[in-house]
Design brief:
The chain is an alpha+beta fold. The protein has 3 domains: 42 residues; 131 residues, Sandwich (Immunoglobulin-like); 90 residues, Ribosomal Protein S8, Chain: A, domain 1. The chain contains 5 helices and 18 strands. Strand 2 and strand 3 form a beta hairpin. Helix 3 crosses helix 4. The chain is elongated and about 125 Å long. The protein starts with 8 loop residues before the first strand and ends with a strand.
């Protein structure tokens, strides 16, 4: 062991480790550089040189030597077979596409209060569907979910709360149908826009028994027997051109003179909670007042551009809470509108008439 020289690879006999000899320290020690670059002093008699053609092995000196094993020729690994795809079970009815959206309450007994909701996409057909689920935002669309759904399946889209219902009043679903690895009947790409009555989300009886869930749900058809519910086919440019042509043609036709009436037809809106909701179980007075004011804001927003429109809000006499809340909104948010007590003969003290200015 004494013929160790600088540059030899060595390992330690009485401990793990080893490295390359970088120098000597006295007569009986060497400086060994380990794999981290540190010089470690070690006794020469506790080091053994490792053959140059082999990589250094780091192990305890009392580990038994491994006897060389005869080399056994290994057969080439067999190529793994491609994982078989799940076989799609088709039905005769599934050749016609039936596509639905479904909404379920998270807490069916609390629909009137704080319950949230789940949305599902249902593909009741033999076709794969690439789809995009969107909602209208101002003059554009926002994608809420997009992806691929397999035949005869349903998938979860999202969970949302009552605060999100206003965004879901107008939704749109786009579809492209196809089959994998087999011939099929060509289906047209589809774009369907729907208007959701979000008031129904507050009414428990609107969630009904259905074919797709054990729980009651609101199910909206998108396509039934290959026929879209309401397909968007006319582009904005085509519609604008058609309207322009219609105006040009109408200008050439003799028209009867019609004098504009000074007063627009009066619109009546009954804000009694019993007229707005079928069931008020579980609602506090504050909940009901909030719902009534939301309807009040909705109507004024809808007719904001109808100058001269008169709207009678029937709030009842009662203890005057709703009446005072409406007057507060008119004085703060709708200062530009004129309001007064509605006809006493028709409504008594229980209505306020607003004129859009």
């Amino acid at each position: 062991m004494s013929n160790i020289k600088v540059g030899d690879k060595v390992r330690f006999l009485n401990t793990t480790g080893g490295g390359i000899v970088r120098g000597f320290k006295g007569k009986d020690q060497v400086l060994v550089e380990d794999e981290d670059g540190f010089d470690i002093p070690a006794l020469i008699r506790e080091c053994v040189v490792v053959g140059g053609e082999n990589e250094m092995q780091v192990h305890s000196s009392n580990r038994p030597k491994v006897q060389p094993q005869p080399q056994v020729q290994q057969s080439a690994p067999k190529p793994q077979s491609k994982q078989e795809e799940v076989k799609i079970e088709e039905t005769a009815e599934g050749e016609r596409m039936n596509i639905y959206l479904a909404y379920l309450p998270l807490e069916p007994t609390k629909v009137m209060q704080q319950s949230g909701y789940e949305a599902y996409f249902i593909n009741d057909s033999n076709y794969y569907q690439f789809f995009n689920y969107m909602n209208r935002h101002n003059n554009s669309w926002v994608s809420r979910y997009n992806g691929l759904i397999e035949p005869n399946t349903k998938i979860f889209l999202e969970e949302f709360g009552k605060e999100d219902l206003n965004d879901l009043e107008r939704i749109c679903v786009q579809l492209i149908a196809f089959k994998k690895d087999k011939p099929y009947s060509l289906k047209n790409s589809i774009s369907v826009e729907l208007h959701l009555d979000t008031v129904k989300f507050y009414k428990q009886h609107c969630f009904m028994e259905n074919d797709f869930f054990e729980e009651d749900a609101m199910v909206y058809p998108i396509v039934r027997n290959d026929v879209p519910e309401r397909e968007l086919l006319v582009s904005a440019a085509d519609l604008k051109e058609a309207m322009y042509q219609k105006v040009q043609e109408d200008r050439r036709v003799p028209q009867t003179i019609v004098k504009k009436k000074s007063d627009s037809a009066v619109l009546e809106v009954d804000l009694h909670i019993t007229e707005l909701l079928d069931n008020t179980n579980g609602l506090s007075n504050a909940d009901m007042l909030t719902y009534q004011l939301d309807k009040f804001h909705e109507i004024l927003g809808k007719y904001a551009n109808h100058k001269g429109q008169k709207i009678v809000f029937i709030h009842g006499k009662g203890d005057g809470v709703l009446r005072k809340a409406i007057e507060k909104e008119l004085k703060t948010r709708y200062k530009q509108y004129y309001y007064q007590d509605a006809s006493f003969r028709e409504y008594g003290f229980g209505a306020t008439m607003v004129t859009i200015k």
